[in-house]
Every structure is written in C-alpha cells, then in structure tokens.
Task: inverse folding
C-alpha cells in the first residue's frame, strides 16, 4: 500500500490511501486553467468508462525550483472530478487564489473500483486502488476569464446565465437521494391565471404527504380535495387555506402538488403568470402529445395536473367513446369536470408521478 503522505491527501478528517495495481494507466490529457480573480479548473479527457471516479491531486509551490525539489509547498488542490460528457471530466476549486508564477505539481488518479470507506478511532479514511499517477508540472503564466469555454467545447444553442456552456454539458442534475429544499420549492396556489387553466390546486401537505422522496425516487401524488376535508365540510361549502393569507372558498377541484426548481437558468419566475407562454413550459408528459418541446425560459417544473381549458379540444373523445364533459369556453368548466368524476376517477389506477432523476444537458 502506498500512502500519499508526500502529497497530503487529507480531506476533512479523512486520509486517503492508494494501492499499486498492474492495470495499464489509460490515456489522459489535462488542460489546467488558473482563473481571475480566483478559482481553478482542470479539464480532463480520460478513457475511463469503467469508473465513476477520477481524482485530481495537485500541490502548489511558489516557483519551479521548489516544485521540482518538493520543498515548501504553499497549498493543495485535491478532489473528485465531475463527469461532463462521455470521456470528459471537470475538477473545480472556486476558492483558491493563484498568482502568475505559481507552479502546480499534479497527477490524475483513476481508481480501479469505487472507493472503500472506513472509520477508526473517530477518523474517517478512504482507500482507492489503482495505478499511481504520473506527476507533471504546470506554471501559471496568466489568469483566465472564468467565462472562457473549455478546450473541447462544442457550440450549443443552450444559454445559461453568467457562464458559457458546451454541447453535451450537464447543467443541472438531481438524483433525489433526498428532497433538497435548497434546489426545489413546493408551490402552493390555485392556477387561476395559468395559460392552460388546469382544474386543481397545488398544496403542500404536512400529513399524508403528496410530495416526498422514498428509496431515491421522487413521488408526486394527486389527491381529491373531497377526501381531505370530508370529516369537516363539503367541497362545495368549505374553504381552502394555502397558508399565504388568502382563503379561497367553494373550490370544486382535485388537487396535486408542483415543484419548481429555485435555481433557474433563465429569467426568474416563481409562479405562472398571464404573460407566460406555453412554449416556455417543459412538459415531461402531456395528453395529446408534443412532437417538439421548446423551452426558452430551462425553469424546470415537475407536477401533476388535471383537466384544463386548452390541452383537450372540445371534440376530444376517449378510446372508449366518452366525450369530454366540459367546454373550454364554459365558465363552469371545472365544476362540470368535478361533477363527472365518476367517469374519469376510476381510471386513476396509478396517478402518481414518479421521478428517478432529473438531468439537464446542453443541446
């Protein structure tokens, strides 16, 4: 076992060790950039399809002489790189400040398998098996604008506020190991000014939740309002409190839940408004179908809707010969939708929207 004590691979309270192996080290090319006013990036091209882990290990020195003699280092650049495309990886450090003349002694470590973690005496350790990296030297000769595209950047129509992206680059990803409220916001409102006017309200329930993560899966569950308030009042005479100070009476709607990503890629909209066009809403599934999905405002919304006064034409007939029970121009369309629930509610055998992961990739 070879300990990286000479390069001090200390992560929080964990010490990382590496072992030699007979595996041939894959071809790796690296482009390093020191950013202005701070930050560092390593663009890595590696034939490493069998691993999800690539480690960048760098040591900082004031000049080349000290770097070659491995003496008096002034800092570290260490961490796991992120896969950006098929064989492209990116390691970033947003906080390090590099000066012209600084030298980085660096190596790229590709484990044979997933890291093995352990804990001893309250100290976490991480062991990686793989070929020892071939260390090289990089001298900072100038600082780069962080908005400059990467070395293998292909042009894309996708635009992201504040930075340049490349075709195939992963812009956002969530695997729903937990419901991250720093990324997602559960909306609560009745979409009376929504361009499609769906017949529902969006609510966040504290008990018998309709939005939750379980076993790495996001679940959005539509429920009938009638079932929720039956113990206390009728849907025709009761009231609905959406916790924002507005009480809406006599709501004849089922309800669901909608999740809006709070970290937006284009103009910020917290809710739908009358000016928002249908083309700016990403629909993962839509009755009637879209051959092309256009999104010129990449706000990502996940939700379950019901009915509506623009999605289904008045001439719509189900495969079982049933006609639509409301007209789009009827001011009581949602009421007629509710009154005909005996015809559509039995079809809600698996109404949940389940999402394994969300990944947004530049075109």
Result:
């Amino acid at each position: 076992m070879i300990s990286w004590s000479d390069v001090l691979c200390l992560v929080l309270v964990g010490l990382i060790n590496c072992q030699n192996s007979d595996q041939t080290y894959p071809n790796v090319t690296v482009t390093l950039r020191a950013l202005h006013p701070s930050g560092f990036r390593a663009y890595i091209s590696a034939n490493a399809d069998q691993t999800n882990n690539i480690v960048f290990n760098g040591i900082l020195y004031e000049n080349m002489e000290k770097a070659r003699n491995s003496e008096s280092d002034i800092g570290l650049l260490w961490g796991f790189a992120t896969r950006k495309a098929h064989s492209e990886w990116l390691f970033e450090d947003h906080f390090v400040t590099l000066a012209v003349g600084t030298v980085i002694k660096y190596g790229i470590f590709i484990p044979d398998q997933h890291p093995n973690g352990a804990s001893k005496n309250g100290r976490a350790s991480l062991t990686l098996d793989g070929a020892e990296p071939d260390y090289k030297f990089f001298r900072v000769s100038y600082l780069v604008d962080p908005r400059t595209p990467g070395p293998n950047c292909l042009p894309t129509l996708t635009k992201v506020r504040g930075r340049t992206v490349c075709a195939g680059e992963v812009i956002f990803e969530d695997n729903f190991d937990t419901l991250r409220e720093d990324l997602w916001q559960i909306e609560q409102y009745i979409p009376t000014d929504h361009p499609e006017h769906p017949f529902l309200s969006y609510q966040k329930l504290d008990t018998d939740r309709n939005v939750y993560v379980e076993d790495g899966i996001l679940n959005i569950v539509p429920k009938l309002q009638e079932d929720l308030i039956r113990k206390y009042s009728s849907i025709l005479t009761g009231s609905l409190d959406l916790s924002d100070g507005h009480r809406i009476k006599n709501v004849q709607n089922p309800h669901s839940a909608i999740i809006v990503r709070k970290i937006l890629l284009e103009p910020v909209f917290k809710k739908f408004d009358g000016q928002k066009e249908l083309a700016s809403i990403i629909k993962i599934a839509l009755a009637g179908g879209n051959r092309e999905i256009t999104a010129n405002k990449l706000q990502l919304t996940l939700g379950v809707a019901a009915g509506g006064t623009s999605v289904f034409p008045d001439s719509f007939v189900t495969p079982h010969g049933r006609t639509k029970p409301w007209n789009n121009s009827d001011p009581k369309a949602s009421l007629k939708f509710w009154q005909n629930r005996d015809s559509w509610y039995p079809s809600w055998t698996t109404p949940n929207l389940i999402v394994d992961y969300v990944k947004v990739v530049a075109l």
